[in-house]
Amino acid sequence: MKHLLTTIVAVSVLLPALASANPATLNHPGRLLASNCFQCHGTDGYGMEHLAGERASEISGELMEMQFEPARQDIMAVHAQAYTAEEINLIADYFSKQPK
Predict the structure, then answer these.
(1) Which segment of the chain is annotated as a signal peptide (predicted)?
(2) What are phi and psi of 52, to 5 degrees?
(3) Which terminal residue of the chain, N or C, has fewer Cβ atoms less than 10 Å from its own Cβ?
(4) Distance of alpha carbon 12 from alpha carbon 43, whole angstroms
(5) pTM over 0.70, yes/no
(6) 26 φ/ψ angles, rounded to the nearest 5 degrees
């Protein structure tokens, strides 16, 4: 009975997240990298500062600018400085493919 209850609770928590996930990007190579962004920006890009459907070049350009702003020490700059240009492009591509 305990395992059944645990399973029911797990499914009830996971189903809404899976139902709202964009099937086209579930296996996107940038999804895992973008998972650091999900807390604020949401898995679908609709959290704080909407990223969903924005041009990938705009997202990556802003992140790359943050890498070279030494005076900027907020959470976005810290995250941006941890990624390579290739990783930033994958993250930007992931969010750009989310429906607006």
Answers:
(1) 1-21
(2) -55, 125
(3) N
(4) 18
(5) yes
(6) -60, -35
Three-state SS string over the chain comes to CHHHHHHHHHHHHHHHHHHHCCHHHCCCCCHHHHCCCHHHHCCCCCCCCCCCCCCHHHHHHHHHHHHCCCCCCCHHHHHHHCCCHHHHHHHHHHHHCCCC
Would you write out the chain's pLDDT as a tens digit for each of its 100 residues?
555 545 554 445 444 544 556 666 778 889 999 998 999 998 888 888 889 999 999 999 999 999 888 787 888 888 899 999 999 999 999 999 998 8
For residue 22 the two structure tokens come to: 């964009």
